[in-house]
């Protein structure tokens, strides 16, 4: 699994989204390390739940910003959020019966989706919002 050593590379200069991607990546890295290290399933689930909670709040803030600023790609972005939510639910079910190798593959699939989403959909939204919302100081 490729490390995501510098989560700040995903930060955007938009007040509503400024540090959320970096926090998501940081939480993800903790989850990945726990899975790789063979941590107890209860600990892995707790970390996954932290990531899910943070991501849910991130999704809500993005959705609010998209609505407030009449983002043209709102529906497509929302569908991606719904897809990830569904994938995480499947991941939770799969983790309970997975081998260590399977768990690492599942986490890698989640990582791939998260990074692509941040680098494409979230970046496009941040660029759109940067023309409409004030930047952070």
Question: Can you describe what's shown?
Answer:
The protein has helices spanning 20-36, 41-68, 74-95, 100-130. By secondary structure, it is mainly α. It has one domain (16-130): Up-down Bundle (Four Helix Bundle (Hemerythrin (Met), subunit A)). Helix 1 (20-36) packs antiparallel against helix 4 (100-130). The chain is elongated, with a radius of gyration of 15 Å. It starts with 19 loop residues before the first helix and ends in a 7-residue tail after the last helix. Mean pLDDT is 81; it is low at 6-14.
Largest sheet: none
Q: What value does the average pLDDT take?
A: 81
Low-confidence stretches: 6-14
State the CATH topology: Four Helix Bundle (Hemerythrin (Met), subunit A)
Give the percentage of residues in beta strands: under 5%
Give the name of the CATH superfamily. Hemerythrin-like
Q: Assign the structural class, choosing from mainly alpha, mainly beta, alpha/beta, alpha+beta, or little secondary structure.
A: mainly alpha
Q: CATH top level?
A: Mainly Alpha
Identify the overall geometry: elongated
| Known CATH architecture | Up-down Bundle
Rg result: 15 Å
